[in-house]
Amino acid sequence: MKEQLIKAMQRNQLIDMMYVSKSGEVTKRRIKIIKLVGDSFQSFCFVKHAKRTFIIDNVLAVLPVLNKEREVV
Q1: In contact, 1 and 59? CB cutoff 8 Å
Q2: Across 24-28, average pLDDT
Q3: Are 14 and 64 spatial neighbours (Cβ–Cβ below 8 Å)?
Q4: pTM exceeding the 0.70 threshold for the entire prediction
Q5: CB distance 14 to 30 below 8 Å
């Protein structure tokens, strides 16, 4: 999982993430990773509109957000 997060950070990508909180609640977040530090990472969360720190082991899945451009015909 850490490798996927590093790649997303290096590519400056937005990612959709499934995450388990400390209380055990599963949430979906759209984030942009700012930095990785040890077993956690800091990111901007577009759901909460704030910087958040997440624990890597609590990440269930990540999926890059793709910007698809439509052609005007």
Answers
A1: yes
A2: 95
A3: yes
A4: yes
A5: yes
